[in-house]
Design brief:
- It is a single chain.
- This protein has a five-stranded antiparallel sheet.
- The protein folds into five domains: 185 residues, no CATH class; 44 residues; 105 residues, 2-Layer Sandwich (Beta-Lactamase); 72 residues; 154 residues, Heat Shock Protein 90, CATH 3.30.565.
- By secondary structure, it is an alpha+beta fold.
- Bound molecules: adenosine-5'-diphosphate (ADP).
- Adenosine-5'-diphosphate binds next to helix 13 and helix 15.
Length: 626
Amino acid sequence: MTLVFVAWIVVWAEVNDAQVSAAYQQTLIADASSVAAQLAGRQDMEKARLREVASRLSIRTGDANAVLATLPEVVAGLDRLWNRLVWLDENHRLVARAERKAPIVANATEELRIQTSGQADHLAVPMVDTNGKQAGQLLARYEITDLLKGTDLVWLNHRYEVNFLSELGEVIATTSDPARPPHGQRYERPLPGFKDTTLQLTPIDSIVSWKQNPRTLALLAGLLLLGAAASQLTRREMRQVRRAMDDTQNEAAWRQSMEDSALVGLRARDAEGRILYVNKTLCDMVGYSRHELVGLKPPLPFWPPDAVDAMMARNLDTLAGGAPSTGFETRWKHRNGELIDVMIFESRLMNSNGNHIGWMGSIIDINERKRLEERDRHHTETMAQHARLNDMGLLASELAHELNQPLTTIVSYSAGLNMALKKVPSLDPEVIAAVDEVSRHARKAGDIVNWIRRQTSRSEPVRKPYDLNAIVSDVLGLRIRQIRRVGAKLVLELDSRLPVVMADRIGIEQVVTNLVRNAADAVASTKGERVIRVATECQQLDGRDQQTIEVCISDNGPGLQGRSIDTLCTTFYSTKSDGMGLGLGICRSIVESHGGTLVAEEAAGGGAQFRFTLRTTPTGNSPETT
Ligand code: ADP
């Protein structure tokens, strides 16, 4: 760069030198022309004066020499320039002559030193008689040096050495000064009005080329040095700047990596809530890219649509500085629709001048924490339920123990009563039937009590081959009163081709009893015809030998109203004022202990439908009688 600049200066100086030199030459020529013109003017003036003398002489008579010598113009001319005046007649014979006695003293051209004299010239003008005819001529001889003496050439002295040269090259007159030697190129031109005389101008101060000017050279050298030093400094400066930029970029990259690898989501917002910055963790948290989030103002796209108003209010509170320093919990919506629980800590965002320009939020995903909390809560609830169940189990065990004895007594007394009544003649058979019924119910109650005792004593369940239709009919026989009480119509659709199933009879009876009782409770609120349908069906499993028996109990009550089997089976879940909420849970547990499943669904014509399946027993087993 510096080299280019210096080269440009050199070219400029060269061009400038050439221009100055041309201008100088022009000035020289103009000055020489000016001197020539001045001398020519002097000559013309002398010639005019001579003509004046000639006109005076032509009208005079007498002694021509005296006339010529006394004529004032002649005297003045001799004093001024002429050193001899000759009057010739028309035949070139001398009529008169006048001569100067003393040499001329220089006045204007003190600095023009005359070196030699003798170089002479003359002026000639014709004489005219009274008739206007040529009557000879008047010649004025003068020395060129005298002509120069009357010339003002001082103005040239300062710039040039002025020389007038004779034909032979002798210096006629000069301004040469040994103290001021000339330097420049000479310029010569002939003086046309003077015979064989040449004007020579030599400049005293020649044009100094930039190459000969030590100041210019020093300036250029200085510039080069300065440029080199500047370029060295610039290079060092650039190296430092590049290093600083590298450091800054590295630092920015590290900071970005640190922010992106942070488990905490970060977001910076201005005072109006416009997002200025988000880190990768926050982007991952809500499923939007940094590009999509930066620049957004509330409401933000990850706010749940149903909570926008509340979020807006909280946002205004936060921007007003009302966010608690301990953070607050809120819920956002991921782009994929999933709700996420987050904990937000807001702190003031300051600029480099220490001015508060917005808010910096640290966001922690507390979904996992919430899930664990929920699991703990559920676990605690389950434990509490288990504890209650345990207590109830103990109570049931106690009750079963206590009830066993009176029930056995009822059965014994009913048997004795039956035998005694049979001896009574003409007794109403309904009395005996009633005693039988008491005995049957007491035995059933005894069976249930024993089943409860077995359940609570954790003894192995008793599984025997049974005809499921027989169990279902047996239960319906015991429940028929309740069905009639609610005015429901019982529709029985039992599959006569049912295979034998291995089952815990009392357990399956409990399942059917509970489902029928729930159905009767459900239809109690139905207006119009109330129907309870109980059906059994044998299903062949595809590609397997095994068959499945399905028992379906449906009603036309209010239905499940969207509640799942899990909800219905939740321990202590009940919508009845006198319900315990244990029945369906126990049913499902009994069915599953038989390898089957309990399903709850809406019935086709409205109402609820409960189905459970049991696996069939291997062929060859004959069913136990109930
Ligand atoms: P409980 O009968 O003591 O309420 P259950 O576990 O047997 O306990 O039943 C739980 C709940 O399931 C009932 O309170 C009732 O709301 C609902 N439910 C059970 N069966 C039916 C049905 N057939 N139709 C409508 N709701 C039912």
